[in-house]
Amino acid sequence: MKPSVHPDLQALAFLVGTWSGEGRGEYPTIEPFAYRETVTFTSTGKPFLAYAQRTFAADDGRPLHAEVGYLRMPRPGWVELVVAHPTGVVEVDEGALSGATLRLRSRVVATTPSAKDVSALERDLVVGPAEIRYRLAMAAVGHDMTHHLEAWLRPEV
């Protein structure tokens, strides 16, 4: 039996489930690429949703990236996201939820000594009845805030 979504998170209940699809990435320091992605939002019954993401190269299926974290709503219309990346980056984002649009901006980005320098991230999610579309921009390795990723995900049945 799946736990129900905590009352504080009812405004985010539409995210719960597994979403998969395709995306495109680019950045000034890399060649553009296509990828496949799976994202899962899980209710624990507590006042947060667990978040897990994995991407794979569209051409040969090799693993590209993964991240895990938690979404919280400390007050109505305001969301916090804590994300850990295996590359040595941890981000704390926050932002407004308006309907099914979520605009998150990094409040803190911390890196391990061996991680690439990432100083800021922006995540925009727009959720429709059968799709999540998101865009991610980042300021990293000496570049100002620049578009990095865009994907379209559909719910898995």
Give a short overview.
The chain has strands at residues 17-27, 30-43, 49-57, 63-75, 78-84, 89-98, 101-111, 118-128, 131-140, 146-155. By secondary structure, it is an all-beta fold.
Q: How would you portray this structure in words?
A:
The protein is mainly β. It has a single domain (7-63, 74-119, 143-150), classed as Lipocalin, CATH 2.40.128. Helices cover 0% and strands 68% of the residues. It has no helices and 10 strands. It has strands at residues 17-27, 30-43, 49-57, 63-75, 78-84, 89-98, 101-111, 118-128, 131-140, 146-155. It has a 10-stranded antiparallel β-barrel. A hairpin with a 2-residue loop joins strand 8 (118-128) and strand 9. It is globular.
Strand content: over 45%
CATH topology: Lipocalin
Query: What does the radius of gyration come to?
Result: 15 Å
Shape: globular
Can you tell me the number of structural domains? 1
Fold blueprint:
Elements: E1 17-27, E2 30-43, E3 49-57, E4 63-75, E5 78-84, E6 89-98, E7 101-111, E8 118-128, E9 131-140, E10 146-155
Antiparallel strand pairs: 1-2, 1-10, 2-3, 3-4, 4-5, 5-6, 6-7, 7-8, 8-9, 9-10
